[in-house]
Design brief:
single chain, 262 residues, alpha/beta, Rossmann fold, eight-stranded mixed beta sheet, 9 helices
Length: 262
């Protein structure tokens, strides 16, 4: 990690911070999940860096990026702005959770500007009404306030208690991110996920955990995704839930490497 570059790129109405491994391999743009930051990809980036040039974005409202603006904003446009500012040509785009949904939306609106797509357990869930969205946003703000009241050691201890399958290397960036997240960062989805997938033309891997362990993508949702777009292949990772790569890293890495190398 010591040789990685760090910087920031201008986006519409702000900036995104990023870390980049560099190298001569194909570029991979990584978009993290809610309350994380770009360095939460560190373990995967270490594994892939010999073959790929990984760009780990801090999403708006996270890490060292601009805070979340009032009203709706488009995370997919933030990814588009970052890719353009960095001069990347048809990168691989990859995301986890809400970052996976933003990645899918980017691949939908820019089908000719991506070479491959990897989606880790995106929230392909039914839309909710305004009142439910407001309740969810309020619950999230209270959660972030709770993070702010905890020290880094306390956060790491909580993380280890909640997620005993994670590697020790996963916790420092995860805990640091909890003090960086904007209380207003909870996204609002106004478009059904089923409208996003059909226009993606690049080969796409949908990798997900087990529903009973907290995975958001059920076998039924995975089957629906494949029916919507024949470019999509799906892989369920045994023993993992929503934080798929953290809960069974070897199996996750094997699936992703196999897809990226093909």
């Amino acid at each position: 990690m010591s040789a990685w570059a760090s910087g920031r790129v201008d986006i519409t109405g702000g900036h995104l911070a990023y870390h980049r491994t560099g190298g001569e391999g194909p570029a991979v743009v990584l978009s993290h999940g809610l309350t994380d930051n770009g360095l939460c990809w560190q373990r995967l980036a270490d594994a892939l860096a010999p073959e790929f040039d990984l760009v780990m974005l801090d999403a708006r409202g996270h890490g060292d990026s601009s805070r979340t603006p009032q009203g709706d904003h488009d995370p997919a446009q933030d990814i588009a702005d970052a890719i353009a500012q960095l001069g990347l040509v048809r990168p691989i785009v990859m995301g986890h959770s809400v970052g996976a949904r933003a990645t899918a939306a980017y691949a939908n609106t820019h089908p000719d500007k991506v070479s491959k797509v990897v989606l880790e357990d995106p929230p392909f869930l039914p839309l909710i009404d305004v009142a439910a969205a407001e309740r969810r946003a309020g619950k999230f703000r209270r959660q972030v306030e709770g993070f702010a009241a905890m020290s880094q050691p306390e956060l790491i201890a909580m993380g280890r208690a909640q997620s005993p399958l994670w590697h020790d290397d996963d916790f420092p960036a995860w805990a640091a991110a909890k003090h960086q997240v904007d209380p207003n960062a909870m996204p609002v989805n106004s478009r059904p996920w089923q409208e996003i997938l059909p226009a993606i033309t690049a080969p796409t891997l949908l990798v997900h955990g087990v529903s009973a362990l907290g995975g958001l993508v059920s076998p039924e949702i995975a089957a629906e995704a494949r029916a919507l777009n024949p470019s999509i292949v799906t892989v369920e990772i045994a023993g993992a839930g929503h934080n798929t790569r953290r809960e069974n890293f070897p199996a996750y890495l094997a699936a992703v490497q196999g897809f990226l190398r093909a």
